[in-house]
Amino acid sequence: MSARRYTLKKNQPAASPSLAIEYQKELNEAQYAVATTLENPLLVIAGAGSGKTRTLIYRVARLIEAGVAPQSILLLTFTRKAAQEMLRRAAMLMDDRCEQVAGGTFHSVANLILRKYATSIGLDPSFTILDRSDSEDVINLLRTLLGLNERAKRFPKKQTISGIFSKTINKDLTLDEVVLRDYSHFADHLEDLHKLQVTYQQYKTQKALLDYDDLLVKLRDLLADDQSINRQLSDTYRYIMVDEYQDTNKIQAEIVRLLATSHHNVMVVGDDSQSIYSFRGAHFRNIMDFPQQFPSVQVFTLEENYRSTQPILNLANAVISQAEEKYPKRLFTRKSNGSVPALIQAEDERAQSRFVCQKILELREEGVPLHEMAVLFRSSFLSFDLEIELTRCDVPYIKRGGFKFMETAHVKDVLSHLRVVANPRDSVSWNRLLLLIEGIGPRTSQSIIAAVMNSITNSGHFLEGLKSYCKGSHYSTALQELYTLLEKLNEENTTLMPAEKMGWVCHYYLPLLKQRYDDYPKRIKDLEHLQTLAERYKETETLLSDLVLEPPNESVSDIVASDHEDERLILSTIHSAKGLEWHTVFILWALDGRLPSLHSFMSDEELEEERRLMYVAMTRAKENLFVTYPVKIFDRASGSVLSKPSRFIEDLDQNLLETWTLIEES
DNA sequence: AACAAGTTGTTTTTT
DNA sequence: ACAACTTGTT
Fold it and tell me: Contacts by A170-176 with C-beta closer than 8 Å and gap 24+?
């Protein structure tokens, strides 16, 4: 580990007295230095709540003020919502020019660039993007096709296989390395896994399908292999800013490096203590390797916290100070008073839920709005019991993270119809929509798909293949209806708006939905929500890629009806809480075996990541922090009883964390 | 016999 | 919600 160098630049004299924005007044010394250093590589280590977003916004404004064209600024963020929010705030600070700044996630930027340059790398520009479950479906299909699940020894499940393949790419390892290191119990299947991986790649290429990893890999390869395109893009984006750099992986770092070849104007912001995505190949060392890629880099550190009270910071600092490996950084604040965070032991899960719910109601009485309170947890399923309690007490909430709206079956069903029209070679979607029809199972579906693919190669028209199946069997009437729908969508492909097309699909799908699900009224609501989303789009292809890349992450059915739209409690996984803050934060299940999760006990590295997760959760709180855990929890997977509080907060001084016990009132 | 559909116990985090 | 297993249909 290289020693950290702090380079604090002396305050520059204010650029010009006529400027509307008074940077020096509105930013602290370090923030000001960052916002006004416009050229050359820049690394900013920004502690939690240190005004990182604010600094980025001011820097965007400063760049535009200095005459830089907004279109030549590229802002890479973790979610596209984050980018839009920043640009909106920058526009408020300055003017609408800020909205023209290019921004989004690595994946969404890759999507745009690849669609534009697809033909030059032999890619169909109307390629379909596979989300996680789509790519698992493909893998499952190929696994059966290769006869791998009939092996004597059990072959890994589709999720596991997909995880292995993804790790090879994101951690830049060979298949052998990944399997032997993390999945040694499947070492016997190495040869078959190799075969499957090759087949998977071929299948995707043949059907014009790209999974999340392909988007990044293809963009990197495009930039690395084609000098002239690299030049064009590098000249287009003259100023690059990357947020949450601690959660980027090697490929993303390479993309940044390649995009900056002609100018080196790159600024990356991050915090090694908040790196929580290593399962996706991110490594916090990435942030420290940055100076090696750009030797002329200037390094800044933001340590003053504007979010939390001192007692909360004291606790967070104590948790992170036990980290094996960390970079010296100590958050401080001027908000000195505030109450000491509380640790509450509950006798079981129900008691924990009841306590949290009751406390939330109390705080609401005291005037804390519901949307200023959040309940955070390690894994999505850990909030199930609390959700029941909240519903019982009529507390409206939204849940972020975990299962996504887009991943619900009925939404995917509807979209698959639009997808086959956009890319008829997309056999994943064909399979999905065919299986909906009664009487058609995996076998029949495969043979119909084969016929469709044949008709594409022979006549160039996919409907021919479907037609031949429309008579003579018990499912032919249903298939005829499907044919009519797809014919309509295809013939009026260019004249119909995306929302109109979706209307036709829903009309066709509604009877199937009602027959399939008992809870169809809820699902119909979801589809209506999808319809409203679609109305914002002019191009079906944009709609489809956006939905895969940036899925709306709250399901309508999760929302308990409420009169006041904004008055909703937030439930979130810690991962999805990144970058956010609330007046009051509850950390649920701070139980050893849940946070840290049992899965992480084997490796020190994973355990360290769990610690950072706890740190991230704590630093979301502005005023109040409650940490709770139930005892006597039996874990079926390990066969053990969990009763100890999280090792990260055990035996801490009462000054840092006050312990409380729940007394049941009769 | 081949295939479709219904039944029963486990589930990390996400672009 | 998924996979493995079981029952039902053509």
Answer: A170/A213, A170/A249, A170/A250, A170/A251, A170/A280, A170/A281, A170/A282, A171/A249, A171/A250, A171/A281, A172/A250, A172/A251, A172/A281
